[in-house]
Specification:
Length: 279
């Protein structure tokens, strides 16, 4: 198992699970929306997440929430590139770009990103080629359908097995394109074209993904499966997120993608302490 990843010169140590802090730079996150107004709150949010223990910052300008509309290329570039440059100049951290667009991947890596997080697993035209050239670690996530419609009627023969097959095919496509398999990470994609029952089964069987011999990233932070189980609004899902994050680390997750970094760090530390005890 790979423990050390080279993220454009910065080392990511996966000998213990790490927390990836989420930085959304979508206009709905900030009332004014303009670029200058985006930078300031983004930077203080990054500073806070790093102080709390995040080792990667995931910058996303494309809303992938269920029902979300597509964002144009120029709009996405406008949202994320200046923020990445700013983070790269002010902090010594690994910046991840959460995008499915090859042009955004290229520009983001040039601006200082050292990790690509693609919810579409490099299936866009040209994405594989761009990823080869970028030469940074890449997280391949599973999604059934597309964000606008994915929650309509998700269906699987066996959710875990189907997703393992999809991810192993995408890993093979990456290797065939010339990407070093040691640069790949996988993510089952909680909430992306999955019912509550399917999300829960995936979590129960998460350790099955270890058969792909690749680090596993998990994002459950504030997701609707928590809202459904607890009947809780988005701002009431921190404890539910921690519960799921604990289960994920217990079953071998290597990176936890989270909004509430301090809370996710507690989940990581508790699950890791119990996992390692007596070994
Ligand atoms: C995920 C993501 C996830 C990875 C989003 C949200 C939706 N990337 N981007 N895994 N989710 N790798 O945060 O609710 O689960 S956007």
């Amino acid at each position: 198992m790979i423990r050390q990843l080279d993220c454009a010169g910065k080392s990511l140590d996966l000998s213990t699970p790490q927390v990836m802090g989420i930085l959304n730079v979508t206009p709905d996150s900030f009332s004014d929306g303009g670029q200058f107004n985006l930078d300031k709150p983004s930077i203080s949010q990054v500073e806070k997440m790093l102080q709390q223990g995040a080792t990667l910052i995931d910058v996303g300008g494309e809303s992938t929430r269920p029902g979300a509309a597509d964002v144009s290329l120029n709009e996405e570039l406008d949202r994320v590139i200046s923020v990445i440059e700013k983070i790269a100049s002010e902090f010594d951290t690994i910046i991840s770009i959460d995008t499915s667009k090859p042009e955004v991947m290229t520009a983001a890596v040039k601006a200082g990103a050292g990790f690509i997080n693609d919810v579409n697993a490099l299936q866009a035209d040209g994405a594989l080629d761009v990823a080869v050239k970028a030469n940074v670690p890449i997280c391949l996530m599973h999604m059934q359908g597309e964000p606008r419609t994915m929650q309509t009627a998700p269906s699987y023969d066996d959710v875990t097995k189907d997703i393992i097959i999809f991810l192993s095919e995408r890993m093979q496509a990456c290797v065939d394109a010339g990407i070093d398999s040691k640069k790949l990470l996988i993510d089952p994609g909680f909430g992306f074209g999955k019912t509550l029952e399917q999300n829960c089964q995936l979590m129960r069987e998460l350790n099955a993904f270890k058969e792909l011999d690749c680090p596993v990233l998990v994002g459950v932070s504030r997701k609707s499966m928590i809202g459904q189980i607890l009947d809780a609004e988005v701002d009431e899902r921190v404890f539910g997120s921690v519960a799921l994050e604990t289960l994920a680390v217990w079953q071998g997750a290597n990176i936890i993608r989270a909004h509430d970094v301090a809370a996710a760090m507690d989940a990581v530390k508790i699950a890791t302490a119990v996992k390692m005890a007596g070994l």
